[in-house]
């Protein structure tokens, strides 16, 4: 009888595993059926909105999205209006992050440090756009797209400076010490000061609605979906186990976001530097191993930027792809980062504006350029893209593994870390938009956090098209409401900058480190 027990135990274990797999598969199918219905709804009824936001005009052989032009024009105007602040004040921005202008004995209002605010905002932008987005740009626009990505990132620094200064200036600090800020507040309050209260409320409500939709889609479902896809790609995790990936991710996300901004910031300040270091280290290894090809890679980037021979759309194709992917990656002008930066501990709004201008530099100028160099050195991006060659994350992954097979697994780890950090940051953006519309209370906040985590599970389980198209459109619709307000309020920012610099020169503002 004793000899049969192991057999019975094995049979019982096999039965349990089989039953669990069936239950998981059934649950995944239920979610997939529901999500397919939702996706069908969005496909039938929101296509007009997606088409409107991503309306394109033909330029040469390529199509140029007007929303990209809207963001790029704003970045160019802010760069000129603020006197190239991203170049003149970059050193000061670094000093602020290091605490040079922070009195260690003062108790300033806010929830997080300058560094924590920066890493939280960076975790919302440094992510799959740097991996998959650059792969798309080079597959279609060739190496020359890299030059235009860098240019767009440099100009976008001025947009971040403007919106994040306003985010701190017009924020709300509750009696509990919790901070609520971002475009919703500076659009309504800032424009009200100028006698445009009605317009300000309309812009603020429109921004908040689009922010919630973008949070649940681009900042949540898409991230979870790509995280599970990379687990399947690198570690052969069955695709039908997406529900398990989703549950684990949702549990991890909830454990962080339930603690609010201080909890999110404490995680991002640890994850983001390591996450960025891991990715940049892999890129540096590829570059060093292939050091003999770096010169020709840079030559291809600069030559392709202005000639684009053999590239889809030529020079125009490279320019458009570079501008599109940089804009989609760093979110300068979208207004999302201003929500995170509003929570900083400071009484000088301009200090956080200066800190924030470092974001597009790290995100686009450094990390996107590293990715582009790896792809160009590997030589796998054979333009023009014919629909069957490598693109997106597969092109990036294949380019890294050309140097070392282990990068396949390290890249998967990076993608998962990117996805997780993006989700926790965007949960905060969505929460602040949610509480702006429905009020500040623990119950309202908890409801949103639960909804957010449910969408993590849905995103990891299914494949979808129209839902993510709509959420992407919502993300960039945020910039329409935001930038209209920035044009009205940029004189406020200029006044803050002039005052701060003058007080430093006079010695009124002291240095501490």
From TrEMBL:
It is a multi-pass membrane protein. Gene3D superfamilies: Amino acid/polyamine transporter I (1.20.1740.10). Keywords: Cell inner membrane, Cell membrane, Membrane, Signal, Symport, Transmembrane, Transmembrane helix, Transport. It comes from the Bacteria. Residues 1-21 form the signal peptide. It holds the Pfam family Na_Ala_symp. It is found in: Cell inner membrane; Cell membrane. The keyword Transport applies. The keyword Cytoplasm does not apply. Its main location: membrane. The chain crosses the membrane at residues 64-84, 202-221, 241-259, 271-291, 297-320, 364-385, 405-426, 446-468, 474-493. NCBIfam families: agcS. Belongs to the alanine or glycine:cation symporter (AGCS) (TC 2.A.25) family. This is Alanine/glycine:cation symporter family protein.
């Amino acid at each position: 009888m004793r000899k049969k027990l192991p057999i019975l135990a094995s049979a019982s274990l096999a039965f349990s595993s089989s039953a669990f797999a069936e239950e998981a598969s059934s649950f995944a199918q239920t979610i997939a059926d529901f999500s397919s219905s939702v996706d069908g709804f969005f496909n039938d009824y929101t296509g007009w909105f997606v088409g409107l936001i991503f309306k394109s005009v033909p330029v040469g052989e390529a199509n140029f999205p007007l929303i990209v032009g809207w963001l790029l024009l704003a970045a160019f105007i802010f760069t000129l209006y603020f006197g190239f602040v991203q170049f003149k004040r970059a050193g000061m921005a670094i000093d602020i992050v290091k605490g040079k202008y922070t009195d260690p004995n003062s108790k300033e209002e806010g929830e997080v440090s300058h560094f924590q605010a920066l890493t939280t905002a960076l975790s919302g932008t440094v992510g799959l756009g740097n991996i998959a987005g650059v792969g798309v740009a080079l597959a279609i626009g060739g190496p020359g797209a890299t030059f235009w990505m860098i240019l767009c990132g440099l100009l976008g620094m001025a947009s971040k400076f403007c919106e994040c200064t306003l985010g701190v200036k017009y924020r709300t600090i509750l009696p509990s010490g919790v901070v609520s800020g971002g475009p919703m507040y500076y659009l309504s309050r800032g424009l009200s000061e100028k006698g445009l209260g009605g317009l300000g409320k309309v812009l603020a409500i429109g921004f908040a609605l689009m922010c919630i939709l973008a949070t649940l889609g681009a900042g949540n479902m898409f991230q979870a979906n790509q995280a599970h896809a990379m687990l399947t790609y690198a570690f052969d995790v069955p695709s039908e186990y997406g529900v398990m990936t989703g549950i684990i991710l949702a549990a991890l996300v909830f454990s962080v976001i339930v603690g609010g901004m201080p909890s999110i910031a404490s995680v991002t300040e640890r994850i983001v530097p390591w996450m960025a270091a891991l990715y940049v280290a892999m890129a540096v290894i590829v570059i060093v191993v292939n050091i003999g090809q770096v010169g020709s890679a840079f030559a291809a980037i600069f030559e392709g930027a202005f000639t684009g021979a053999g590239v889809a759309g030529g020079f125009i194709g490279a320019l458009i792809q570079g501008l599109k992917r940089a804009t989609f990656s760093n979110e300068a002008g979208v207004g999302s980062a201003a929500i995170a930066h509003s929570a900083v501990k400071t009484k000088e709004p301009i200090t956080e504006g200066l800190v924030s201008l470092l974001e597009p530099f790290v995100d686009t100028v450094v990390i996107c350029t590293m990715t582009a160099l790896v792809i160009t050195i590997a030589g796998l991006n054979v333009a023009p893209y014919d629909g069957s060659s490598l693109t997106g994350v597969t092109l990036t992954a294949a380019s890294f593994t050309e140097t070392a097979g282990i990068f396949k697994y390290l890249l998967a780890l990076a993608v998962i870390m990117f996805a997780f950090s993006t989700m926790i940051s965007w949960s905060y953006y969505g929460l602040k938009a949610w509480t702006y519309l429905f009020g500040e209370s623990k119950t309202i906040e908890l409801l949103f956090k639960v909804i957010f985590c449910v969408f993590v599970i849905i995103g990891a389980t299914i494949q979808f098209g129209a839902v993510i198209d709509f959420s992407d459109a919502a993300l960039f619709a945020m910039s329409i409401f935001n930038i209209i307000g920035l044009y009205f309020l940029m004189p406020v920012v200029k006044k803050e900058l002039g005052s701060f610099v003058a007080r430093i020169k006079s010695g009124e503002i002291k240095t501490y480190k």
